[in-house]
Amino acid sequence: MIMDEHGKTEGEFHTMGFNPYFHNADLVEAKMQDSTEAAAIAEDVVKVYFYGAGSSSEPLCAVIREGLQRVFVNAKVHVGHDLDGAAYSTYSGEPAITCIIGTGSNSCFFDGHVTSEEVPALAYILGDEASGSWFGKRLLALHLYHKLDPMVEADFNATFNFSKDDIVNRVYKEPNANVFLASFMTFLGRHREVPQVISLLEEGFQSFVDVHVKCYKNYREVPIHFVGSVAFHFQDVLCHVCEREGIRVGKIIKRPVDGLADYHVKYILND
Question: What is the DSSP track for 126-157?
Fold first, then answer.
């Protein structure tokens, strides 16, 4: 999102997501330069705020910062973790737990000043409960083990026509396996009324709550906000699981950028 010095929105443009575990400064620079909108304003930008997955330590943040600095040569570049961005985007003046459930998943507590975590994010191989990659793994396993609902199985074969080797290669040999796995959420959404899919969704959200929400001692005392496409599009099941656990659901938003912009105007840009 592009904003002037008074915090007024002047437009926005989109790029791929950048994660320092998978992308280096050269790729960040190249992708930003490929954006005609970014190139058109690059020399006039004086501040850049970036929040992304993987930007959890100074060495990792430095990778993204370097790539952005090469493009926005006159700007002061701030790089932060996606949890910070999620917490800021949902902040409504009271302490809260903010959760990300999209391609990956994670959570944090934000007291209005500092974000903190109780358990780490373990990414798509070891963790990412209820994320798109988590559900994608389980869908593919059910398919390969011949345990999918027959109607869902028939549609899967008609839609994708993947062989076992195709799937194994995409998951184990090609880059961005997490994105490939998460891409099946649209397909799952098409069959969200099938009992097996409902059970799968409930299992995933319950796992997320057990690991990433109940770890906070005050989880029943503060609102729980959710950010991300999976939380947004399957919020009926998510809210059902939360209600069952006595959790007070706060905001559920698909993309954090609007709330982030408001937070920066109110708390950061004028400091």
Answer: H--TTSHHHHHHHHHHHHHTT-S-HHHHHHHH
